[in-house]
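Re: S-adenosylmethionine structure - here you go.
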Amino acid sequence: MTARLIDPFNRAIEYVRLSVTDRCDLRCAYCMPQGFSDFQVPEHWLTFDEIERVIGVFGKLGVTRIRLTGGEPLVRKGIPELAARLSALPGIEDLSLSTNATRLARHASELRRAGVSRINVSLDSLRSERFKAITQGRLDKVMAGLMAARSAGFRPIKINMVVMAGVNDDEVEDMVEFCIEHDFTLRFIETMPMGSTGRSASEHYVNLQDVRKRLEQRYELLPGVMPGGGPARYVRVAGTALRIGFITPISQHFCASCNRVRLSVDGVLYLCLGQEDKVELRPLLRNGATDSDLEQAIVAAIARKPERHEFRDRPEQVLRFMSMTGG
Ligand code: SAM
Ligand code: SF4
């Protein structure tokens, strides 16, 4: 029988969000500062061999789901190769990817063949100028990536939209229509005060309970569920195939059902998105630790997983940007 990682609050940890890089080709206003370039040096990046080994150990400990994230995962070379290696590991049943999609058109088919089953794409605006103002990037590239992912057979494809007052909150209905038309799942996200960028964006915070009420004026929303739904609370839009998820870390936190930890590109295991608790696995990997040493380190780390984030009570405390932890 597979060992299980159970934390002090009786939560089973079965999901690892794996940041394969802290770099990104965009600079979303809420995530990474303009001109930021203080990245991890390549010598600190876990190699594919090291990642495969650590994830293999997580697999032995009962982790079944891995999400490749970053930074922008597709800026690191060879991600389809890494995906193939991870999806072949015993115990790993579900390999997914979070991406800004700027490079997805090039890689979608290869990623699918490599065993990536599900894709989440960040998309905060359907208007080119506004998209550029928020992310510094080009909307047409993201659209090409999304369409390539659909042609490659990814289902579901989830669109993640961070809703910000006075920035893009007037596009909520447009995004619903866009997702109905293209058969995407839509998730709205509340801004989180991660790093200086997250805190400034939080000045534009929108409570998603209000967005939901607004949508109810126009659509009939029915209770819905989504397999592997994670923290989002889902509704279905009557008369369509659309599901909408609300990710509400601030207005209604979901820490009681947290099932995940995050591994950064330099091998730091973060136990909670909103806390500093962490364990460095890279020194173990590079100093001759056995798999059994790694297992023990991971089990000991999980025993220290905090109960919850404190984004509301102590919004100043998380200094790292989302891109550093693997959002
Ligand atoms: N680059 C990929 C992307 O954009 O999807 C993956 C990494 S990104 C850090 C993962 C998610 O974090 C994105 O959906 C992004 O919108 C979200 N994110 C980043 N900073 C955030 C913040 N301060 N508050 C809420 N969501 C944030
Ligand atoms: Fe890059 Fe994703 Fe952060 Fe945007 S949210 S800057 S795409 S890592």
